[in-house]
Amino acid sequence: MHTIRLGLIGDNIADSKAPLLHEFAGQLHGIDVTYQRLVPRKLGLTAQELLVFCREHDFYGVNVTYPYKQLLASEVTITDESVQALGAINTVLFEPGGPQGFNTDYSGFIAAYCAILGLKPPRRSCILGAGGVGSAVAFALVQLGAHALSLFDLDTARAQALGQALKRKWSGLEVNVTNDINAAVDGAEGILNCTPVGMAGMEHAALVNADQLRGAKWAFDAVYTPEHTAFIENAKAARLATLSGFELFFFQGLHAFRHFTGIDLEQAELRNKLREVLRSGAAS
């Protein structure tokens, strides 16, 4: 059986389900995938040193998560112009000519949106959280046809930096940066939670309630454990169409696996197996 070595570089990744996704994907195609969680401080290395270590120790590639998506973007070659502009990566493939960087949060969100919500442009949207996922989703929304974005983050400087990056790429885009959450959601057709609020440990927390969501048409939550977050439940109570974080997790994983192996995965079996494991984990 063919064996490939993969990993995930990040902090606080003990509960990440990325290893399961890639190991299951390998099993479906007769590939023995080893997928390691790699926390730089625990290994006594910087993130940059760890990337070099992985390349020198026969890793095919690695995924990258918080807080290194932007830091490691400068350590790789990025060919996609939108990924260059957003300045963050989550996937690295080690090629003979050097490490290649990709952002499958960006491509995965586009795929998830089209698969679940259809092809209608998102037009005016509000993004809660301007970190790595929020940045990727913002660029994806514009690629999908959004003409106006409202950015909310308690770190106003971070939201402003994202707004500036978007405007450099699309000068005609309407961007509003605010630390007033009511102003952020006002008039938005799509409201997207790209913060950790609602994840395991704070399952009952949500940045906005059902009343604040009324008037919007759809909502997305980047949190996927649990899948049915308080934010998603509030969106359903407000009668919005919803896109769960599981869909982004699933499609970004499909795209990363394709970069690592060149294989386009058959989706149904992998989706069912992952859902089964995530639900059993939630019940335990």
Give structural notes.
The chain is of the alpha/beta class and about 280 residues long. It folds into 2 domains: about 1-105 and about 245-284, Leucine Dehydrogenase, chain A, domain 1 (Rossmann fold, 3-Layer(aba) Sandwich), CATH 3.40.50.10860; about 105-245, Rossmann fold, CATH 3.40.50.720. Helices cover about 40% and strands about 20% of the residues. It has 11 helices and 11 strands. The protein has helices at about 20-30, 45-55, 80-85, 105-115, 130-145, 155-170, 180-185, 210-215, 230-235, 245-260, 265-284; strands at about 1-10, 30-40, 60-65, 90-95, 100, 125-130, 150, 175-180, 190-195, 220, 240-245. The strands form 2 sheets. The chain has a 6-stranded parallel sheet with strand order 8-7-6-9-10-11, sandwiched between helices. The chain has a 5-stranded mixed sheet with strand order 2-1-3-4-5, with helices on both faces. Helix 1 crosses helix 10 and helix 4 crosses helix 5. The two termini are about 35 Å apart.
